[in-house]
Amino acid sequence: MIKLLKIISLSVIAVVVFGLALCSKVSFLLLITLSNEGTKTLPDEMRPVALLCIGCVLIISSVFLFLKSFWKACYKTSKLPKKSTIALVLFFEFLVAMGAAILTIVAMPHLDIVTNVTILNSVAVLSALLQVITQCTAKQTNRYLVPSITAFLLILLGYVLFLVLYIMKDPTDIKTIIWVGLAVGGSFLMSFNWWENYFRLISEKTKSIFLKALCRDVKTCQNMLQILSSMLRIAVTAGVLGAYVPLDKMDWKIVTSIPSRETKIIAIIIGVQLISSALCHWFSVVACKMHALRRCFILPLYLASLAVMVLFVVPVIVYYQDYRTNLNGTTISFTGYCNEVVDGRNQSLNGSVFPGLVLDVTHTLCFLDMSKITDIGFLTGSAVSWWLGLVLATLHLWYLNVSRIQRTQDLFVRRVFEGAFIEQSLLLNTRFDIQTKNRRKESSNTAMLYLCGTMWHETYAEMMNIIISIFRLDKYRPKIDRKFNDVTFETHIYFDDAFKHVKGSRGNHLNSYAEDLVKILTEVYGIFTNIDDKFFKHNKQVPMQKIIRTPYGGRLVVTMPHGNVIIVHFKDKDLIRHKKRWSQVMYLYYLLGWKLMTKYYARLKKGEDKAELTAELQREKQNTYILALDGDTDFQPHALMLLIDRLKMYPRVGAVCGRIHPTGSGPAVWFQKFEYAVSHWLQKTAEHVIGCVLCSPGCFSLFRAAALMDDNVMKKYATKSTEASHYIQYDQGEDRWLCTLLLKQGWRVEYNAAADAYTNAPEDFKELYNQRRRWGPSTLANVVDLLGSTSIISKRNPSMSKLFMFYQLFAITSAILAPATICLLIAGSLTFVIDIDSNVALVLAVIPPIIYLALCFKLKSDTQITIAGVMSIIYAFLMLVVSMSIIGSMVEDETILTPSSIFVIGMATIYVITAIMHPQEIQLVFHGFLYILCIPSAYLLLTIYSMANMNNVSWGTRESKPTSGAATPDPVAMQTKTQRAKSTFQRYFSWCKCCKKSNQLPVNQEVLITESQQPELQPQNTIVGDERIPEEQTQAEPLFDSPIQCFVTQLQDMSTDMQLEEDSLDKEEEEFFIELQKKYLEPLQDDKERQKTMSNDLRELRNKINFAFFIMNALWLVATFTMQLFGASFSIVLPKVDFDLETTGEDVIIDPIAFMFILGFALSVVIQFLTMFYHRIYTLIHYVAFLDTEPNEKKPEPLYLEGKKAKPQSSDSVSDTSADSVSDSVSDSEVGSEFEESEDEFFDESGNGTMV
């Protein structure tokens, strides 16, 4: 299916590119023909109209470029170029504009059609010459040198044959000599259009500092240069056109009085030309990005020139032969045919537009004697020479390497197309590079990838999913194979609260969850070893794995069959702070602070140049990525590679997320499947296209190290919650808060829908409500935080314009008013079903939510959820009645033009079309019926529950000091180690920019927070009443004693299939962790007094936010109620339309309630629907390119293909999955996983993806 999709897509693209190039060139040459003196399709006095259209073709791309560059200059920072740079660019642009205008407006209308078709290929003359020069200066053997020389000579030969053909025909005809000379000169000047392509290479090879600075200035100041150059080209074209018309004794007055017939002809031709040229350029770029350069770009454009020749010459020959046949044997030469038919215009051949155009084309050939072999020979020779010259000058394109997501600015030199030279401009505009050893070395930057998963109480089946995914990636990107050195990876799993106390043992033991993880590692290791036949050929013995004691607990290091490493960090909550956010802080500082920065600091101490080290460090930070995973995430290797593509191609993308699929069974999961689908199909794509994704979910997101180490990101993410609002924003949705920090620093967050990942969803109603109780308030807090910094963020982040922030304001307002909107929906249904007054129905609809809100402030959360469950069932029946009432109102009123029916039909149509655009998820539409029934529960009751319980920030665990009997570090020993480690830690992190923090958000300011500014350790998430154990009551035992039995011996005893060898931690790394724990990750102490204060603060914050939240809903309802009282004044009257879409003569009155309901949802959904279409197109581009560049993975043995994935289980129970079922779950059959979506840049080709 996937291969068929690829073949169909590429075939369609190739045909479209060929067809559009053909339409563009044919329509342009028809305009040239209509401007000829002998045309009869248009009156002779209307030639200025045709010339004006030619001028429009020349300047239309410059107009678009000017508008785009001016828009960027208004909303982004644009650097002003030097005067020398402006002079150089404008000089070449003047030559190009003058040449194009002279060639097309002045010279070509006086030449024959064959010459006009092929002389456009001669604009490759300077490109061929510059290719020869740049390759000769490279001083290396290059396979393009001979073709470039041949191309240059062939184009010169074409010029010679062309001059001989026209001048020798009548050497005394001065006008013809002038036209021919202007044609040659104009085409030569036009060939300067692609000077940047070769100026860049020349400046790289030259020793001239001036040329290097000039080239750098041209590159960095493109925006302002494009504004100036586009204005110059428009002015030069207008000047040539304006001067030529009166010089050729034509009058501009005819432009204001064009007859309708001629207007229609001209409008169709110019419309086809402009539209086909723009679309041909776009589809050509798409073809290159789909990695189909040869099949869908080069070959169709080569053939387009030949096809244009056939389309013009064949009708001429057919009409000529038909005329000779009608003469009943009488012979007539081509010259006689021209005199009698073409110039005389036999009316039998002039009955429609097409015959007239054919005769106009024939008229251009009448100057030449097509009866003579010499004329035909010279004409054919020049045509063939020019075409072959273009082919050889662009021969390097056949060997051009294109990345999977090729940026347009990296593929094409100029950002515009030339409508008059569509295929030539596309081919010659492609970048020309001389491949040298150094260039190849520079282009191959290896990415370092860290997979970081966090675990706590995942079930056996859930942990099996992520471990299998990691081993699949090891098989997909083997470290021991040089072919896959573009990405190397390590896996780090951070296991919270992994230890338990065992009586009679001097050391802690791993708990049952951690033991299950070790069992899974052992089992999956054996399975993947058996799958790979080559393993035992090269590695006859399974390598020894390592187990290490660490200051935070323990570490297990497993080397996978293909050389990559899994490192499991077992965290002891008595030694280091636990919970997910602190595990993330731990691996961020360890991987980015210690592992990335240490080697550069050591080299700096050895005396290496700091500037070079800084540049090298920046490159590594740009090419180091962290994949955040949950403990139950299941993903395929190709999904990860699609995420890496985004970060590799766009330097300002700080994070990218994939398409998350919830797994499980039951009504709660079915609801979430449709909810997730709609969220990704419409909401996330809309954010991606018109602005920037606001939240990259922590279960499957890829982050760039440079973004995480930026000011106010990693450092601020390690901030402890000290205020009530911090608990909601920082701790309830840590992934959204991290993205908020990235967005504030100007980084872009993207969404790649082709990267699929699967994670367990809550299967229980209570579990779902508790999950959303955390998500709702944290989302509101982070979005409000972003909206509050709109002016600063819009300046710093190009992807987050003020227009996009207004869209987010509209979206969050709609979410806040969702409860009131649901009440309006229910009121409308009650009006129809019970047949009561709409005002009374509105009051009845509001009463149950008000009662439930009051109960949420009085009852326990479990009781609240139980009541919500009962009410959800009642509301589900009511929603069924609502659906029936909409259909009933349509039948009763005998019209589909009612507010409710328009909304429902519109939404259903949008969702169905959206599902069709996602063919492999179309079955989720059936879950939409359950989703409709659950709308009141999800958007009314759940919202009330979340807002009323936002003061509950406990996740059910506690962070406290060790209890009596726990294994704790010796205070004296720890103090000694701390003193030794402190200087090491500060040395490494004083040089690291990730240690900067600021409470403000200035546009360009870096604030360094010193150690003395850090807040003191305070209890966090402990509003549940923990007891603090006094420090003097704890037992102080040495951390690194060797007890009789501990987790080391425990793992060695249980791992019979995988041998574990005890190893020790590097001394400096050990000191690093000790200082890291002391500074950021020390277990938090319990403070009953502070707990009580924070509990009161949270309750007070809850009350304030709830008051504002529900007052807004109340005001919305009151406004609607007031409009209902004065319905006659506010009602909208529309003509009644029956089911045949014909007016009945009656009117339909739209009441205010229905109007407010439609107003609240329709606009945002339509915007999301349109952006979805755009997003799907670029998804297809990226995915097809991926299929063409990624190697096919070897299929596993049939035994493993038979199994299915282990079924995910509820997070509150431990699975008893057997080893047999686990071995079946390793099926690699999902390697070619389902195709979803992707995208590329929107309007801004640099990848910023912003509308403003």
From TrEMBL:
Annotated localization: Cell membrane
BP terms from Gene Ontology: chitin biosynthetic process
Biased composition (Acidic residues): 1231-1244
Membrane topology field: Multi-pass membrane protein
Alphabetically ordered keywords of this record: Cell membrane, Coiled coil, Glycoprotein, Glycosyltransferase, Membrane, Transferase, Transmembrane, Transmembrane helix
Keyword Glycosyltransferase: yes
Annotated Gene Ontology cellular component terms: plasma membrane
Stretches that traverse the bilayer: 47-67, 88-107, 113-133, 145-168, 174-195, 225-245, 265-285, 297-320, 376-399, 805-828, 840-859, 865-884, 896-917, 929-948, 1107-1133, 1153-1174
The family this protein is said to belong to: Belongs to the chitin synthase family. Class IV subfamily.
Protein name from the UniProt record: chitin synthase
Species name: Zoarces viviparus (Viviparous eelpout)
